[in-house]
Amino acid sequence: xxxxxxxxxxxxxxxxxxxxxxxxxxxxxxxxxxxxxxxxxxxxxxxxxxxxxxxxxxxxxxxxxxxxxxxxxxxxxxxxxxxxxxxxxxxxxxxxxxxxxxxxxxxxxxxxxxxxxxxxxxxxxxxxxxxxxxxxxxxxxxxxxxxxxxxxxxxxxxxxxxxxxxxxxxxxxxxxxxxxxxxxxxxxxxxxxxxxxxxxxxxxxxxxxxxxxxxxxxxxxxxxxxxxxxxxxxxxxxxxxxxxxxxxxxxxxxxxxxxxxx
Length: 262
Hints:
By secondary structure, the chain is an alpha+beta fold. The protein contains five helices and eight strands, in the order αββββαβββαβαα.
């Protein structure tokens, strides 16, 4: 097992966030296990994924995204990781919504993930035992499609940090749950963990900051450098391009977010 830096504890938010269980990607480290995508239907005490309309009337399946993926890699992207936009729906009222997201490779097989909303933050030291950055990108992409709920888990060796993303109209709720041991909690319901951080933001803003953070990583390290430091997985180029396409097309972002190389 690799040695991780000391983990900073995030403030606790004692808020209820009942959500749907959804199996994610396979754990890659020795002694790992997989979540079976077919194993989960709606179990006892769990919700069923709602059929509310996708934001911006977007109903793209992942197969369609693979066909429509952009190949463009030139140009300059947004120079900042921190972005604020006007809220919408329940966040509207003349105020501003603020969200920050960063992803930094902090050692061989480790990354530092930070998310903050101007009120509180969550920071974790994430292991390569899951394809963590790819899971983030795929899950945000999924919110633009038919599924209103997306889940993925970070392996902190040994703890599990589970992100639950739920689309609510044009907004996205992020709820982060912590479990002490991923080897025993991977199939546990969300409510068995501790709700460590939650925030509701415009989906367009979530897509923007996640896209920019991922682009910053590949610009800094390159695809070869990323693989050398992340070890188990290549940089998720396809997922990044999917998110870029959806964000530019449906969020009408004024920045082109182009360029994957330094």
